[in-house]
Write a structure and sequence with these properties.
It contains 18 helices and no strands. By secondary structure, it is an all-alpha fold. It has a domain of 115 residues.
Amino acid sequence: MEKRLWIPDYLKGWSVIIMIQAHIFETWIRQDILNTPVGEVIRFFNNFPAAIIFMLLMGFLAHHTKANSRKLIGRGFKVLFWGLLLNIGLNLNFIIRIVSKQIDGQILEAIFAVDILYLAGFSLIIIGIIRYLKLSIWLSLVIAVGIAAISPWMTDLMDKINPQSYLLAFVGSRAEWSFFPLFPWLSYPIVGYSLALLLNRFSFKQIKAVKKILFLTVTLAISSLAYIFNWNDLEDLSPFYHHGIMVFVWGISHTLALVALLSLFPVLRRGGFSAWIQFAGKKLTRFYVIQWLIIGNLASFYYQELGLWAYFIGFVAVSATSTILVFLLKDQHFKL
């Protein structure tokens, strides 16, 4: 039996925990708090490339699955369906209040909001096609870089065609409900899949520590420079959701630096807290769905109206509730 890789679980776990606090802050908390010292700390944590890591690892692990191309494509369509159900579920209170005429709003914008599960579904379909066509590692990487490079142009093009189109929001328009469009986000699972193919040629464990330290130094330097040049795009949500090649470079280098760091210090996997992080990573999809169902439905009552107390209490409560529910639920055919 193949031993489970702990670093992907560890990174996925941190990603979903960071996403929980980000979702709480974006939906429950007054945004003027960002201008306070505590808000600056929260902003710093929100710069962790959680979504980028999630999509990179999804592509990476898609290579390791036993599913063939056809099954990968089929799984992609299933995830698209789960994405639709999640959007309905997390916005259920919002939809009910619109239907009952308690508030004004657009139901279709809530249902077709381009969240990360929609992106994951399309990504699995594309990776299944790449696997079927047996594209080379380097051609796949060229495609990924090309997607990131032309994304700003594609976003402008989609906006010119129809900025309010539900279909084009999935491609890359700046519609308010377009959070993870294919341009640029499809680039990350393709990179992850390509890196998995590349790692088949050698064992990362066999690389000497001095080379790992050198790799860590280089990727940290690239990540830091890219961060400096992309400060504005990383601080505001809309430019981040519709970024270009430099944010792409930052996200990839940041993730590779984290992988190198964890490989140098495997002791980080030990202890109760690390065990919880890895548990969250192993059950990431269910964790993600449950936390959004809780946060999304509560957000319809007090959208961006609460203070910092709700941020801290909410983070602990949602994390604890999600952990308990994930632990109690039996394994289902619901994973990425």
